[in-house]
Specification:
Length: about 90
Amino acid sequence: MKVLSNVEACVLVGGCVLAVDLLTVVHEASERTAIPLQPNLIAATAFMEPLEEWMYIDKDGSKVGPLEKNAIRRFWSKKAIDWATRC
């Protein structure tokens, strides 16, 4: 994205949030093992516990986690973490 107006348009329509969601889904999918029976996979994922594999460094420099993805989303929406937070 070399054209600034394209970057601005992408940010305004929520492109950054979509990109972060896409990256987290790809990360989670890459960690799962392949199961040959698709119907069993669908049934099994309905009862899976959320993966707690996300960590970040807080403002005091201490490691927080492991946390599930929804916890990270809550911290983001409450402005407890931002773009400067180290993960």
